[in-house]
Design a protein that fits this description.
By secondary structure, the chain is an all-alpha fold. It has one domain.
Amino acid sequence: MKTKDISFIPFLLLFSQPIFMTSNLAIARGASGFVPPVSLAFWRWLLAFLIFLPFVFPSIRKNFKHLIKEAPKLLVLGLTGFAFCGAFPYISGLTTTVTNMGIIYSASPIFIILLSVSFFKEKISKFQLVGTLFCLLGVVTVVVKGDIKNLINLSFTKGDLWIVGAMISWAVYSVYLMHWKSKFDLFTKFTLMALAGIICLAPMYYVEEKYFYTTQFNKDFFIWVVAAAVFPGIIAFQMYAKLQKFLGASLTGLTVYMMPIYSALYGYFLFSESLKGFHWLGGFLVLLGIVLANRKLFKF
């Protein structure tokens, strides 16, 4: 399908979907102090799973033998894409800003390239290599807050390191998902991965409740859990699936590149966060790296 043949609605989705996707970072920041991070991830995915289950249960029952066969892969995807990428941003939100999270997370496509080259022997071009270096430099700039002394002294914000972990985990999840041929349709697979994520989160949730934080099942808890399940979960996922159908995987992947812009807006309007010089520099380096690594997509 050529770009000129695509209607206005898919491109509207292309720019609106990241609003819901990036809302997870705003929720991570806003829910801190109200809902423990692992608890929020656990209950968020449990609610999303329960909402989807009635619609996909016939497919699961019909293909139960495939479920048994694909269970190990589902657990890996659930651990990386739903457990780690579910809990780590919420832990990050305790000590860092939405702006930082957005800029760092936007580098995940570069790590996807690195993992694809390392484990699946995909070839990397000179532009992809240079783009990767620029992107890594941008992430480091944000993590060390533009001060090389922080790198030398290993002085980082804990939240920035947690979101780096989430970014790498998302890259692992994405690469593994791209190379996995499943017998289940998109929505059924999402529901099963959510279930796998819940299973992986359960021991982490137990440890958090016993040794760190205790969940208070009050009004704030239900508000944040519903928001996390619905906006960056169900709505963002459905919009992403529609985008893939209309535009294909390459153009749909552009949504993650807009996360720094939307995260900065969330941070500014909701949390009075200010944009500093190292944010602009780090964001520019990440954007430059992404454009260089995907020069064919940007047609130059």
